[in-house]
């Protein structure tokens, strides 16, 4: 037992848990849109960044307003921001209730922002064909990042802003690290359960019907336009929660870290590895990758001594190779998608026997 | 203003060539090639490596190495086709899988490029992460403040040559007819004895070569970094889409439209509105592309000149 505790408390395992939790949330949302509803979402970074803005910029300002600190235009000024956030951290660290409320507020605002982004994205999603839509969404993601990066009043431009620390009340250092990673893991698992339930519901089944054959789904009276808008809103909200948790965890919001490689292509690789369309596969794929990534990051200097290249590029090659090889040799991923039963298997067999 | 125009013309030529490459590969194999970004970057690095590292002492003009850039990026295209794309096409993978596979290829090429840049920096003591070659350019005419550099003229002549070659190959040669038949109907083309593999392979080579030329032209216009691909991929795709994605000449026109509007609009905005707007330059291709996608998805290639002329004539006659 003691061994287990020390294993969990090890910084490496905690960083694996954080990476796993955050990317599980984002990849699950991607799977909902791509794997289950069949929308080519190449702009996942859009909703993630929106969530980060909701938590870091909007919720942060509201908190400053609540404490009577500067919250308007001057909030993103680098020196004011540092002072304001420091002051907020001081107050938050002594008040667990306010910290938890702040965390919830940040997540709610992030989810609303992500939902709004999803709703906006549904406008081209209804009108454009597959690949065109993919490229349009990709371009939207780039556009938002460019604006946030250069327009200072949103989130401090290239310098970025600090984000108030809602995990501080359990103490600094190791305690905060442990507590925040557990919160992230718990939220990720809750989202997993929610999506599993969603998949089994009539809504989830109509999404799959839409993906498999749009015309047939429409013939059975499904409103494709509405379904697609709904799934983009739900997916956007979930991805935004992932982005929000990441800014809250790192306590900073820097636009240039929200790149399409990290927040769109990597989740795609995780999803393809695990099994597109299967939430359990997503868990496996994300876990495998976040472990490898954390290990590469942790043993960077050791790696550097016996491979001639920078480990960063090793990571790129690894992920690129995975995408290519999975697409070529095992498009269904590690855990292939299986038909979702509307009722438990035992119940179906009982019904069949009684006939 | 004249200098900006010259830079805009050269930059647009690069975007137009790359967009034509994307369109060519998409027309024949149905693959939206994301690794085009890295193929462009490889073109830029080829010119840099040959002119500044390998043959630095010989003092050749930079333009000598443009064909080498085209060749190397073309070979990269062939490698991509033979190792990944061919396999997926045989298994009739869907469009999103094809697109995703080239993304994976792009990440690998990007890593290779970075490894090469690291190696050059270490072994040859050159700054391979910040490449400025525009100072190497020849000046053709010089009057007062204005210097006419070589690159606008070279870039325009490259595009002209490409257009003439494409026109000739597609319309006058047996191979060109085979290409057009394969685009129209691959299975029917096979029945009449055309090998679609040759067509696919050639289009990947030519597509890659166009990307390489684009990179070579860009090396004389912008500052090169290993991440230059992610900078130009959006204008390149915007050019291809504005061109209508089913027409090579449309994509060349689309690339020019995107490139010119990017430079000219931002210069106008910076001069007359605010200098702070310069950083939003990457948004302009997106804007143009969105307008086209939402209001005129057929693109420039879908524009039928004869119909426009007809309508004009009717309205004038009436």
Attribute tags:
heterodimer; A: 355 residues; mainly alpha; two-stranded antiparallel ribbon; 16 helices; 2 strands; B: 318 residues; 12 helices; 73% helix; globular
Task: Write up this protein.
The complex is a heterodimer of chains A (355) and B (318). Chain A is an all-alpha fold. Chain A is 77% helix and 1% strand. Chain A contains 16 helices and 2 strands. Chain B is built from 12 helices and 2 strands. Chain B has helices at residues 2-29, 36-54, 66-90, 95-124, 150-172, 174-184, 186-191, 196-219, 228-242, 248-272, 283-295, 305-317, and strands at 139-143, 146-149. In chain B, α1 (2-29) packs parallel to α5, α2 (36-54) packs across α8 and α10 (248-272) crosses α11. The chains are: A mainly alpha (355), B mainly alpha (318). At the A-B interface, α6, α12 and α15 of A face α3, α4, α9 and α11 of B.
In short:
Chain A has 355 residues and is mainly alpha-helical.
């Amino acid at each position: 037992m003691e061994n287990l505790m020390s294993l969990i408390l090890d910084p490496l395992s905690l960083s694996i848990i954080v990476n796993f939790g955050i990317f599980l949330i984002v990849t699950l949302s991607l799977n909902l849109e791509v794997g289950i509803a069949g929308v080519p979402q190449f702009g996942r970074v859009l909703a993630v960044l929106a969530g980060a803005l909701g938590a870091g910029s909007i919720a942060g300002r509201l908190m400053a307003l609540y404490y009577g600190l500067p919250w308007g235009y001057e909030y993103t000024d680098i020196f004011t921001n540092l002072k304001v956030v420091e002051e907020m951290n001081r107050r938050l660290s002594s008040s667990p209730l306010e910290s938890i409320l702040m965390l919830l507020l940040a997540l709610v605002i992030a989810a609303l922002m992500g939902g709004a982004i999803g709703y906006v994205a549904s406008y081209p999603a209804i009108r454009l064909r597959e690949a065109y839509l993919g490229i349009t969404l990709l371009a939207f993601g780039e556009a938002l990042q460019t604006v946030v990066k250069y327009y200072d009043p949103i989130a401090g431009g290239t310098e970025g802003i600090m984000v108030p620390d809602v995990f501080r009340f359990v103490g600094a250092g190791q305690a905060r690290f442990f507590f925040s990673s557990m919160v992230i893991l718990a939220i990720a698992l809750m989202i997993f359960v929610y999506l599993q339930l969603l998949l089994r519901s009539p809504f989830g089944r109509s999404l799959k019907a839409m993906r498999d054959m749009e015309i047939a789904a429409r013939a059975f009276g499904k409103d494709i336009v509405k379904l697609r808008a709904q799934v983009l809103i739900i997916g956007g909200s979930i991805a935004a929660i992932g982005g929000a948790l990441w800014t809250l965890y790192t306590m900073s919001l820097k636009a240039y870290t929200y790149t399409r490689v990290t927040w769109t292509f990597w989740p795609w690789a995780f999803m393809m590895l695990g099994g597109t369309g299967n939430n359990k596969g997503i868990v496996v794929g994300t876990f495998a990758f976040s472990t490898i990534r954390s290990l590469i990051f942790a043993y960077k200097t050791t790696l550097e001594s016996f491979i001639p290249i920078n480990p960063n590029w090793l990571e790129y090659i690894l992920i690129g190779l995975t995408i290519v090889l999975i697409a070529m040799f095992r498009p269904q991923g590690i855990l292939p998608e299986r038909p979702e039963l509307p009722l438990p298997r035992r119940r179906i067999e009982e019904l069949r026997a009684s006939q | 203003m004249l200098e900006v125009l010259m830079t805009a013309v050269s930059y647009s030529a690069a975007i137009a060539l790359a967009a034509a490459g994307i369109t060519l590969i998409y027309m024949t194999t149905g693959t939206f090639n994301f690794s085009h970004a890295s193929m462009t970057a490889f073109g830029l690095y080829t010119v840099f490596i040959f002119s500044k590292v390998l043959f630095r002492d010989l003092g050749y003009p930079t333009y000598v190495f443009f064909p080498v850039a085209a060749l190397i990026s073309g070979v990269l295209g062939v490698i991509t086709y033979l190792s990944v794309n061919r396999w997926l096409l045989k298994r009739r993978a869907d469009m999103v899988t094809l697109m995703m596979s080239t993304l994976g290829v792009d990440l690998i090429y990007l890593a290779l490029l970075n490894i090469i840049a690291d190696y050059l920096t270490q072994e040859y003591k050159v700054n391979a992460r910040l490449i400025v070659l525009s100072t190497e350019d020849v000046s053709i005419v010089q009057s007062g403040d204005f210097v006419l550099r070589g690159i606008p003229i070279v870039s325009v002549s490259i595009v002209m040559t490409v257009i003439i070659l494409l026109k000739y190959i597609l319309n006058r040669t047996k191979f060109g007819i085979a290409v057009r038949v394969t685009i129209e109907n691959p299975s029917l083309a096979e029945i009449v004895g055309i090998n679609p593999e040759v067509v696919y392979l050639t289009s990947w080579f030519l597509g890659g070569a166009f990307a390489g030329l684009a990179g070579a032209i860009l090396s004389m216009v912008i500052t090169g970094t290993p991440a230059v691909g992610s900078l130009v991929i959006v204008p390149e795709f915007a050019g291809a889409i504005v061109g209508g994605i089913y027409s090579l000449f449309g994509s060349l026109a689309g690339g020019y439209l995107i490139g010119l509007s990017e430079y000219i609009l931002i210069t106008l905005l910076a001069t007359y509105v605010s200098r702070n707007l310069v950083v939003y330059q990457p948004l302009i291709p997106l804007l143009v592309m969105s307008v086209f996608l939402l209001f005129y998805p057929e693109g420039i290639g879908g524009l039928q000149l004869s119909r426009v002329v007809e309508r004009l004539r009717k309205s004038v006659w009436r």
